[in-house]
Amino acid sequence: MNNMKKIISLIIAFALVLTLAACGGNTNTPDTSNPTADALLSDGELKTGMKEKFDQMEYAAYTDLFYNDNGASYEGKTFKKDGTFAILKDAYNDITRYYVWGYADNTKCCDYQWEFVMPEGAEIPEAGSYIKLEGKMTKDDKALDGYWLTDVSFTTEADFKNAGFDMDLTTMSPTLVRVQIINMLQFKEKFENRSLRLFGRALSENTIQHPYYNESWTMHFTNADTVPSIGAYILIEGSYNANGEDNQITTSKLTVIG
């Protein structure tokens, strides 16, 4: 089963819906600072402090390979990629996965992510760093989507300093956040008590959901001093509490962004 089918089957299992939208544009916006929650934008957008990649052509290639099943056109060829570095904890397969990702455009409604095999002995950058790499597109059942980049060489172009969380989900594309949360819900004990940071919208006074798509994923959190309005963009910092059936984030700080 290829990566996309695995993801789709997990999404169906949790009643999640993948929504694709048309996107356009191609710009890069560098920002190598690492702000705290108090330094966020107030218009419903998270100021991550990461250098971000916006590339319509990369998004088109990603959808062509994985959604149009056109892998044969890419297999065995060498590609250069650049974008934000992400680390996915794949509890389903009990491995750590590495990605370079970006957005189709600055609406951030559509994203793409290329999985790659970390070179043996490489110094792994912090999640959220901006990297450039070159590698061969390889078909492999061990890749989450059925294809990944192998024989990779990469450089870190802009370091991102970890803010101290075990899992900073703001360094992931929205798609990878969804996959990570599915893992957390399915394999609760493997993520117990891990500190995390998560961005989304308030579905209720104690439930956070995907920032753009309704109920694509949801997660409960304990009430904090700040009670968000329904639909508000929020940033939650806390730890994952998987005890009992109602797994949730034990909130240490909740910031309303917009």
Attribute tags:
258 residues, mainly beta, five-stranded antiparallel β-sheet, five-stranded mixed beta barrel, globular
Describe this structure in words.
- A five-stranded antiparallel beta sheet has the order 5-4-3-6-7.
- It is globular, with a radius of gyration of 18 Å.
- A hairpin with an 8-residue loop joins strand 10 (207-209) and strand 11.
- It contains three helices and 13 strands, in the order αββαββββββαβββββ.
- By secondary structure, the protein is mainly beta.
Shape: globular
The sequence of SSEs as H and E is: HEEHEEEEEEHEEEEE
For the sheet with most strands, the description reads: 5 strands, antiparallel
Into which percent range does the helicity of residues fall? 10-25%
Q: Taking all residues together, what is the mean pLDDT?
A: 82
Tell me the radius of gyration.
18 Å
